[in-house]
Design brief:
Porin, alpha+beta, 6 helices
């Protein structure tokens, strides 16, 4: 059996020829920012067994962090405080969903965040932070989060974590243009659709097919099958969305594939591992185009174990068209 003179080209697919397109899309994504449209208000958190000023400091940190996030327009603390006073809320604070919705309508915002900070001292200082994000349109609790720490100096770190979680959830809602949308025909409500983030779809590229499952905002997994010229691979990739704009996303991840090949020159098995970065463009809520590229490690072994070789550094380029059902 002859040793292969070259690596099977179908394993690597498209190469540096498509890198120019990737660079163009990446450059376009940097300038494709739209005006922030999701308006949100943060109410000073209520303190239990802690100074109100200290509890409110967590709200201040959270407000500052949310101001740095895409899709969000955060109402100033002064406007929120004035609205609470003008509406004669009990004890000048917001603690219930009903009051939060009333405040949100007065401020004309899409969502309002309320919460509390509790201090426990039986076993040393211990702080428990509970927060609710209220959606005005559906009049429901959109997202609830609990945080805890043993030092007030950790408030800023917890606020950063909470702001990231809120941004992840609201980013998908904004990108799909609706979190809970009611469709009316002939003046009657027919159906309700929840599109907080894409959960299931399928796609195709050259030369592969895939199924996409979004198991958490910003995270998805894709079982893939590739074929061509006597080569067959099966594996999966993990995707993480780094940045979201209105129609463009910047993402990264890694993938692993089992390789089986039977060509005129060689027969055997192997494996392929690569990491990648790319961009996606959304034509609408259902249809999306992706382009990514990255270096790969490829290991091939003859069936009779007389010859094996590994390769590293080849650039793999993938172009994929995806359609999301849910």
């Amino acid at each position: 059996m002859k040793r292969p003179e070259r690596r099977p080209s179908s394993v690597t697919g498209f190469r540096l020829a498509a890198a120019v397109i990737a660079a163009v899309l990446l450059a376009a994504s940097n300038g494709y920012c739209e005006e922030k449209t999701e308006k949100i208000a943060v109410v000073d958190f209520v303190g239990y067994n802690i100074l109100q000023m200290e509890a409110a400091s967590f709200s201040d940190y959270l407000r500052i962090e949310l101001m740095t996030k895409d899709y969000l327009s955060v109402v100033s603390k002064e406007k929120v405080t004035a609205a609470i006073r003008n509406n004669d809320f009990a004890e000048n604070s917001i603690t219930t969903k009903e009051d939060a919705i009333k405040l949100a309508k007065y401020l004309e915002v899409d969502k309002v965040i309320i919460g509390n900070v509790s201090r426990f001292t039986k076993l040393g200082d211990y702080y428990f932070i509970s927060s609710d994000i209220i959606d005005v349109k559906s009049e429901r609790v959109y997202l609830s989060q609990d945080e805890e720490c043993s030092d007030k100096n950790d408030f800023r770190r917890l606020a950063e974590d909470l702001a990231e979680k809120i941004s992840d959830a609201l980013g998908y809602e904004h990108m799909n243009r609706k979190a809970t949308e009611s469709i009316y025909l002939s003046g009657k409500k027919k159906s309700s659709v929840d599109t907080r983030y894409r959960k299931f779809g399928f796609g195709a590229g050259y030369p592969y097919l895939l199924v996409n499952w979004g198991f958490y905002p910003n995270w998805s997994i894709e079982p893939r099958v590739a074929f061509g010229s006597g080569i067959y691979t099966v594996g999966s990739r993990l995707n993480y969305i780094i940045k979201k704009w209105t129609k463009i996303e910047l993402y990264s991840g890694f993938e692993y594939h089992y390789v089986n090949f039977d060509t005129e020159d060689i027969e055997g098995t192997g494996s392929l591992f690569d990491c990648f970065m790319g961009t996606s463009y959304h034509f609408n809520d259902k249809l999306m185009f992706e382009l990514d590229m990255g270096p790969a490690y490829i290991y091939l072994k003859e069936k009779e174990k007389k010859y094996s070789k590994s390769y590293f550094g080849d650039i793999i380029v993938n172009m994929t068209l995806k359609y999301f059902i849910k």
